[in-house]
Automatic annotation (TrEMBL), chain A:
<keyword id="KW-0539">Nucleus</keyword>
<dbReference type="InterPro" id="IPR036612">
    <property type="entry name" value="KH_dom_type_1_sf"/>
</dbReference>
<dbReference type="Pfam" id="PF21266">
    <property type="entry name" value="S1_RRP4"/>
</dbReference>
<dbReference type="GO" id="GO:0003723">
    <property type="term" value="F:RNA binding"/>
</dbReference>
<comment type="subunit">
    <text>Component of the RNA exosome core complex (Exo-9), composed of EXOSC1, EXOSC2, EXOSC3, EXOSC4, EXOSC5, EXOSC6, EXOSC7, EXOSC8 and EXOSC9; within the complex interacts with EXOSC4 and EXOSC7. The catalytically inactive RNA exosome core complex (Exo-9) associates with the catalytic subunit EXOSC10/RRP6. Exo-9 may associate with DIS3 to form the nucleolar exosome complex, or DIS3L to form the cytoplasmic exosome complex. Exo-9 is formed by a hexameric base ring consisting of the heterodimers EXOSC4-EXOSC9, EXOSC5-EXOSC8 and EXOSC6-EXOSC7, and a cap ring consisting of EXOSC1, EXOSC2 and EXOSC3.</text>
</comment>
<dbReference type="InterPro" id="IPR012340">
    <property type="entry name" value="NA-bd_OB-fold"/>
</dbReference>
<keyword id="KW-0694">RNA-binding</keyword>
<dbReference type="GO" id="GO:0034475">
    <property type="term" value="P:U4 snRNA 3'-end processing"/>
</dbReference>
<feature type="domain" description="RRP4 S1">
    <location>
        <begin position="74"/>
        <end position="146"/>
    </location>
</feature>
TrEMBL record, chain B:
<dbReference type="GO" id="GO:0000176">
    <property type="term" value="C:nuclear exosome (RNase complex)"/>
</dbReference>
<feature type="domain" description="Exoribonuclease phosphorolytic">
    <location>
        <begin position="21"/>
        <end position="152"/>
    </location>
</feature>
<dbReference type="InterPro" id="IPR020568">
    <property type="entry name" value="Ribosomal_Su5_D2-typ_SF"/>
</dbReference>
<keyword id="KW-0694">RNA-binding</keyword>
<dbReference type="InterPro" id="IPR015847">
    <property type="entry name" value="ExoRNase_PH_dom2"/>
</dbReference>
<dbReference type="InterPro" id="IPR050080">
    <property type="entry name" value="RNase_PH"/>
</dbReference>
<dbReference type="GO" id="GO:0006364">
    <property type="term" value="P:rRNA processing"/>
</dbReference>
<comment type="subunit">
    <text>Component of the RNA exosome core complex (Exo-9), composed of EXOSC1, EXOSC2, EXOSC3, EXOSC4, EXOSC5, EXOSC6, EXOSC7, EXOSC8 and EXOSC9; within the complex interacts with EXOSC2, EXOSC7 and EXOSC9. The catalytically inactive RNA exosome core complex (Exo-9) associates with the catalytic subunit EXOSC10/RRP6. Exo-9 may associate with DIS3 to form the nucleolar exosome complex, or DIS3L to form the cytoplasmic exosome complex.</text>
</comment>
<dbReference type="InterPro" id="IPR001247">
    <property type="entry name" value="ExoRNase_PH_dom1"/>
</dbReference>
């Protein structure tokens, strides 16, 4: 068996990139302003007339509102966000879903599509059969329907694109690395599909052939996935890990570019630091070129 | 006091430091990708690792849940290889439990827990090498880890120890100075407002000396703050540069 060894090397600082000058960076306890004409937003607190930062990050001003956005946090859900989550508990008329949020999200029985169409009544039998649809440990994709007062999220899966996830690979990255786009479901040209959950959970799966309308998204395909698809999926996974390790934003273009830059490397080699750096360098260059 | 001379006639300590001088500090944030926040610190030969998870749903018994704030769960442990003599159990003994409690109190004073009702924040710290000032190294590492996790803090928490030898307060004691048996003061402060998060003193000290010792320790905490702040800002600069946008 071949083993890959490397000696400890000093961490490379990304000094070759242009320094970000225009941004106002603060650390906890820093006074942002002493002017009382501003409104206090997230990541700040008032300390006798002074507006003080409570997290380390970038100051954002919208008119009179001042917020500090930290570099890395738990997922702060907003209505309409696409999330990927894992069922942790089955309760009365609801499932608890772990979505990398500060409290577990809820998925109400009344906000899922049950087999048999839109207008089906939910009976007590459905309540008893909840575990047959989704049980502890299942992965789902869903959309945020509303946010409760304490910050917990209420999810819904009332569309055929949401529902239980079958065969595929989950990659967990920081939620701040997911770029907000119009769509978070992509059928990539390289032969796999991807769900970029706003909560930092990325699901990579083989592109489905046809949608089954009747099942309501609770029946998963357990046919073996061909080797070629599995290779594409694992290559994508390693590319996404590489992008997240170098703190690059994830969206369809960046993923596709990194996939193409990694194409002539072996899948397992992508995670080697020197090859990863090469791929990221190439991806960064192509993105800059495309942006002009 | 018998044995070694902790402060020479020239005013230098055993390891060559001046009385108000800290040991060399090296720190790094974001050492683990799995945790929400993590940090590593070296203060002289004392090395500590801190990991923060949360805020997240309360796991285990739900009765601990507070409806108006987050609960803070700490665990202090010492690696079995961290001391001169091999330790039998890394955590759960009386000394570790006490340290766990101190850490919890310290961070309850600093974290804005009321922003996260019904959730929990876990702080795990481990001493990898113990050479005095374990409590302060833990607090400093945990502060960096909490900042890394993006959890709102009133201010940094900086901790430092101080001793008192020959009418001179010594700051940031090493293991040798701690084990000589003099008075030891551990202080955790929020440096900007000079609020005390925790103060602990073992053995006796004349009342007149307390103030000078407190002043020395507070000043040392402020010096520490400058170092930690530098680390946070460098990290911030580096990450925002690579995210770009």
């Amino acid at each position: 068996m071949a083993a890959d060894l490397r000696l400890p090397a000093p961490r490379k600082r990304s000094t070759d990139l242009p320094k970000e000058q225009g941004k106002h960076l603060v650390a906890p306890g820093d006074v942002i302003t002493t002017d009382s004409g501003f409104m206090r937003g997230h990541g700040t607190y008032m300390d006798d007339e002074k507006l003080v930062a409570s997290v380390a990050g970038v100051v954002e001003r919208v008119n009179k509102l001042i917020c500090v956005r930290p570099l890395k946090t738990r997922f702060n859900g907003e209505v309409g966000d696409v999330v990927v989550g894992r069922i942790t508990e089955v309760q009365q008329k609801r499932w608890k879903v772990e979505t990398n949020s500060r409290l577990d999200s809820v998925l109400l029985l009344s906000s899922v599509n049950l087999p048999g169409g839109e207008l089906r009544r939910r009976s007590s039998e459905d309540e008893l059969a909840m575990r047959e649809y989704l049980q502890e440990g299942d992965l789902i994709s869903a959309e945020v329907q509303s946010v409760f007062a304490d910050g917990a999220l209420s999810l819904h899966t009332r569309s055929l694109k949401y529902g239980k996830l079958g065969q595929g690979v989950l990659v967990q990255v920081s939620p701040s690395l997911i770029k907000r786009r119009k769509t978070h479901f992509h059928n990539l040209t390289c032969g796999a599909s991807i769900i970029l959950g706003n909560n930092g959970y990325v699901w990579i799966y083989p592109t489905p052939t046809e949608q089954n309308e009747e099942a309501g998204g609770f029946v998963t395909n357990t046919e073996p996935v061909p080797l070629s698809d599995r290779e594409v999926i694992s290559r994508l996974r390693n590319c996404i890990l590489a992008l997240s390790m170098h703190k690059m934003l994830l969206y369809d273009t960046s993923i596709l570019y990194s996939y193409e830059s990694a194409f002539h490397h072996q899948i397992k080699d992508i995670l080697k630091p020197e090859i990863m750096e090469e791929i990221i360098e190439e991806t960064r260059r192509r993105i800059l070129e495309q942006e002009g | 006091m018998a044995g070694i001379e902790l402060l020479s006639d020239q005013g230098y300590r055993v390891d060559g430091r001046k009385p108000n001088e800290l040991r060399k500090i090296q720190a790094r944030m974001g050492v683990f990708s799995q945790a929400d926040g993590s940090a590593y610190i070296e203060q002289g030969n004392t090395k500590a690792l801190a990991v923060v998870y949360g805020p997240h749903e309360i796991r285990g018994s739900r009765s601990k849940s507070q409806h108006d704030r987050a609960i803070i769960n700490c665990q202090y442990s010492m690696a079995t290889f961290s001391t001169g003599e091999r330790k039998r159990r890394p955590h759960g003994d009386r000394k570790s439990s006490e340290m766990t409690l101190h850490l919890k109190q310290t961070f309850e004073a600093a974290i804005l827990t009321q922003l996260y009702p019904r959730s929990q924040i876990d702080i795990y710290v481990q001493i990898l090498q113990a050479d005095g000032g374990n409590y302060s190294a833990c607090v400093n590492a945990a502060t960096l880890a909490v900042v890394d996790a993006g959890i709102p803090l009133r201010d940094y928490v900086c901790a430092c120890s101080a001793g008192f030898v020959e009418d001179t307060p010594l700051v940031d004691l090493s293991h040798l100075e701690e084990s000589a048996g003099g008075t030891q003061l551990s202080l955790a402060v929020l440096p900007k407002a000079e609020h005390l998060a925790l103060i602990e003193m073992d053995s006796r000290l004349h009342q007149d000396h307390l103030e000078s010792m407190m002043d020395a320790a507070t000043q040392a905490c402020k010096d520490l703050y400058a170092v930690l702040d530098r680390v946070v800002r460098d990290h911030l600069q580096e990450v925002t540069t690579s995210i770009g946008e």
